[in-house]
Design brief:
- The chain is mainly alpha-helical.
- It has a single domain, classed as 434 Repressor (Amino-terminal Domain) (Orthogonal Bundle), CATH 1.10.260.
- The chain has five helices and no strands.
- The model has no long low-confidence stretch (mean pLDDT about 85).
Protein backbone atom coordinates (compact mmCIF):
# COMPACT_ATOMS: atom_id res chain seq x y z
CA UNK A 1 0.00 0.00 0.00
CA UNK A 2 1.43 3.34 -1.02
CA UNK A 3 0.26 6.69 0.25
CA UNK A 4 1.14 9.97 -1.33
CA UNK A 5 2.83 12.50 0.88
CA UNK A 6 1.32 15.95 0.95
CA UNK A 7 3.35 18.23 -1.32
CA UNK A 8 6.13 19.83 0.71
CA UNK A 9 5.64 17.45 3.68
CA UNK A 10 7.61 14.28 4.02
CA UNK A 11 6.28 13.29 7.42
CA UNK A 12 7.02 13.93 11.04
CA UNK A 13 9.31 16.66 12.22
CA UNK A 14 12.51 15.50 13.84
CA UNK A 15 11.27 16.73 17.23
CA UNK A 16 8.03 14.79 16.92
CA UNK A 17 9.97 11.71 15.87
CA UNK A 18 12.14 11.98 19.00
CA UNK A 19 9.00 12.43 21.13
CA UNK A 20 7.35 9.43 19.52
CA UNK A 21 10.43 7.30 20.18
CA UNK A 22 10.54 8.50 23.80
CA UNK A 23 14.07 9.86 23.52
CA UNK A 24 13.51 13.61 23.14
CA UNK A 25 14.77 14.69 26.58
CA UNK A 26 17.81 12.39 26.49
CA UNK A 27 18.70 13.51 22.98
CA UNK A 28 18.43 17.20 23.85
CA UNK A 29 20.69 16.73 26.89
CA UNK A 30 23.28 15.00 24.73
CA UNK A 31 23.10 17.71 22.08
CA UNK A 32 23.50 20.49 24.65
CA UNK A 33 26.56 18.79 26.17
CA UNK A 34 28.12 18.23 22.76
CA UNK A 35 27.55 21.83 21.71
CA UNK A 36 29.03 23.23 24.93
CA UNK A 37 32.07 20.93 24.66
CA UNK A 38 32.54 21.98 21.03
CA UNK A 39 32.16 25.67 21.87
CA UNK A 40 34.69 25.46 24.72
CA UNK A 41 37.19 23.66 22.49
CA UNK A 42 36.69 26.22 19.74
CA UNK A 43 37.12 29.19 22.10
CA UNK A 44 40.22 27.60 23.63
CA UNK A 45 41.67 27.27 20.13
CA UNK A 46 40.78 30.84 19.19
CA UNK A 47 42.35 32.18 22.38
CA UNK A 48 45.29 29.76 22.10
CA UNK A 49 44.59 28.29 25.53
CA UNK A 50 46.23 24.89 25.97
CA UNK A 51 44.58 22.12 27.95
CA UNK A 52 47.25 22.49 30.62
CA UNK A 53 46.50 26.22 30.92
CA UNK A 54 42.75 25.65 30.95
CA UNK A 55 43.10 23.02 33.69
CA UNK A 56 45.18 25.50 35.68
CA UNK A 57 42.52 28.20 35.26
CA UNK A 58 39.90 25.78 36.52
CA UNK A 59 42.10 24.54 39.38
CA UNK A 60 41.51 21.00 38.22
CA UNK A 61 43.36 18.13 36.61
CA UNK A 62 43.94 17.59 32.93
CA UNK A 63 41.88 14.39 33.22
CA UNK A 64 38.90 16.35 34.58
CA UNK A 65 39.27 18.86 31.74
CA UNK A 66 39.29 15.99 29.23
CA UNK A 67 36.00 14.76 30.74
CA UNK A 68 34.58 18.28 30.41
CA UNK A 69 35.58 18.49 26.75
CA UNK A 70 34.40 14.94 25.97
CA UNK A 71 31.06 15.37 24.16
CA UNK A 72 29.96 11.90 25.25
CA UNK A 73 30.62 12.42 28.97
CA UNK A 74 27.43 13.61 30.62
CA UNK A 75 28.72 13.58 34.20
CA UNK A 76 29.90 17.19 34.05
CA UNK A 77 28.18 19.49 36.53
CA UNK A 78 26.61 22.84 35.86
CA UNK A 79 29.14 24.32 38.28
CA UNK A 80 32.05 23.01 36.21
CA UNK A 81 30.50 24.28 32.98
CA UNK A 82 30.02 27.72 34.56
CA UNK A 83 33.63 27.79 35.78
CA UNK A 84 34.88 26.74 32.34
CA UNK A 85 32.86 29.46 30.64
CA UNK A 86 34.22 32.06 33.05
CA UNK A 87 37.78 30.82 32.45
CA UNK A 88 37.46 31.76 28.77
CA UNK A 89 35.61 35.03 29.42
CA UNK A 90 32.11 33.74 28.67
CA UNK A 91 28.94 32.93 30.58
CA UNK A 92 26.45 30.08 30.50
CA UNK A 93 22.92 31.13 29.63
CA UNK A 94 20.10 28.86 30.80
CA UNK A 95 16.36 29.24 30.57
CA UNK A 96 13.31 27.22 31.39
CA UNK A 97 11.02 26.71 28.45
Amino acid sequence: MTTRAEKGRLGLTFDSFLQEEGIAAETKETVVKRVIAWQLSKIMGEQKISKVEMARRLSTSRAQLDRLLDPDNDSVTLGMLTRAAKAVGRTIKLELA
